[in-house]
Amino acid sequence: MNEVAKRMRDYVPKYYTEMPVATNILDREAEEIARLDASIDDVIAQFFIETATWGLTHWERIFGLTTDLTKTYAQRREILLSRLRGVGTVTAELIENVAQAYANGDVDVDINAPAYTVIITFVSSLGVPDQIDALKAAVRDITPAHLAIEYVFRFYTYAELAAGGRTYGDVAATGKTYGEIYNRGLT
Fold first, then answer.
1. One-character DSSP codes across 87-136
2. Exposed/middle/buried for 56, CB within 10 Å: 0-12, 13-18, 19+?
3. Least C-beta-crowded within 10 Å: which of 18, 36, 80, 141?
4. What is the pLDDT of residues 136-152, one digit of tens each?
5. Beta-carbon neighbour count of residue 110 at 10 Å?
């Protein structure tokens, strides 16, 4: 608001700054303009899936999805982005783009044509992605029905733990459970 008020005062004669009524009017108008600017910025943010909040409902309607308010904005955006990326001829690259929207990391997609199988390997993230069911539905939605889909996950192994030179006490001090370490590592 201070920047708006300063710019407004630059447009009026200097003697207005000595008039309490005039400066009060300028300050109140500056507040209103600042609120209006914020509202405009918020509406513009709704035009893009990556920045939308309350506008996600409209995006979900456009893509024919059911709005699930129990999911976070980030989770809802992942679903929408996968739908947006999942348009066109089905190729390994297309499946990879859709899967990466959910994986929060790199994936490798291999199409084994003789076995009629698509193999999706999660390369850079550990464990099963949080929205694996939504990912499976999105990939199944774009993949031809005659192809099977296999998912290969990477887990934090005991060999990796031992290679890190950590003792049992070091691992126990993290407070993480076996499942958390197995699925997400020690980082």
1. -SS--HHHHHHHHHHHHSS-EEEEEEGGGTEEEEEEEEEES--TTHHHHH
2. buried
3. 18
4. 988 888 888 889 999 99
5. 14
Cα torsion 66, 72, 78, 83 to 10°: value is 10
Say if residues 65 and 80 touch (Cβ distance below 8 Å).
Answer: yes
The pTM is what?
0.54
Burial label, 82 (beta-carbon count in 10 A; 0-12, 13-18, 19+): buried
- The amino acid sitting at 183 is N
Strand-pair category, 148-154 with 117-126: parallel
